[in-house]
Amino acid sequence: MSTTSSSPTEATETPADTGGQTTNSGSDEIDVSAVEMAIHREINQRRTANGLDKLEYRSDLVEVARYHSRDMANKRYFAHDSPDGESFGDRYHQFGIDCAGGENIAYTYWEENIQSEGGLLYHDSEQDVALGIVNQWMNSTGHRENILRERFQSEGIGIYVAEIDGAIRIYATQNFC
């Protein structure tokens, strides 16, 4: 299996159970809130290393990000637009977010061998998952541009974990304002 990510989205300008989640995968638990915060810390390290201000972590952006990650898992798709046509901008509007924002999405696997350009990966800790997702984004031109976009001042990370085809897949959505 390979780690996958999609093209980022940027737009000018979302309701469901969006509480934190801990998921059992065999004998291990994935603390999704820990993954979200580890991604946020890693993103801010990358931004400061590039001379940019840190991003504020906003709960309203977390809600829309969790909503989209859960929707992708439950409806078994991987895209910025849902199968029923809901776009990134639609979600922002639904959740009352009014900004010229952006979105990155990715997924990876828990306790599975993952072939990547840098070799074989195996995520078995929240920090490993976070680093793997951030590396995916930073190694993709569009995702990297979103992360290092100077006008973005805040972000929210939403993680959702689901068993897909016998493997534990971890969906990540990053929303910006």
Automatic annotation (TrEMBL):
Renumbered residue ranges of the record's region Disordered: 1-29
SCP domain span: 41-176
Pfam family, one: CAP
Superkingdom: Archaea
Compositionally biased residues, Low complexity: 1-16
PANTHER family registered for this protein in UniProt: SCP DOMAIN-CONTAINING PROTEIN (PTHR31157:SF1)
Name by which UniProt lists this protein: CAP domain-containing protein
Organism (species): Haloarcula rubra
